[in-house]
Amino acid sequence: QVQLVESGGGLVQPGGSLRLSCVASRSIFSINAMGWYRQAPGKQRELVASITSGSRTNYADSVKGRFTISRDTAKNTVYLQMNSLKPEDTAVYYCNAHLEVAAQGYDYWGQGTQVTVSS
Question: What's the pLDDT score for residue 79?
Fold first, then answer.
């Protein structure tokens, strides 16, 4: 199992920046992939960015060039640096850990952190 704790959300003006953090309860070396998802009111949860244990990254088209996912293995932490924020980035952001054990996939979620982009 993996427990995930997010932090770093808040209220920011359009064009501003925020950095989200997600601390895992176990070494992230042992986690196949970690990612950030978001869910806006009335919308489905969507992938924002992900990073594999081999450091391969993937981004939603809507955030490419603005958001950067990274990790610090010594701190078991994954970050999401969000720049040039837009009102449409407003959502609850969730950290995800995906493990594959004996050909089965398991997903773990944090509690979510609110990001609001508004003037």
Answer: 98
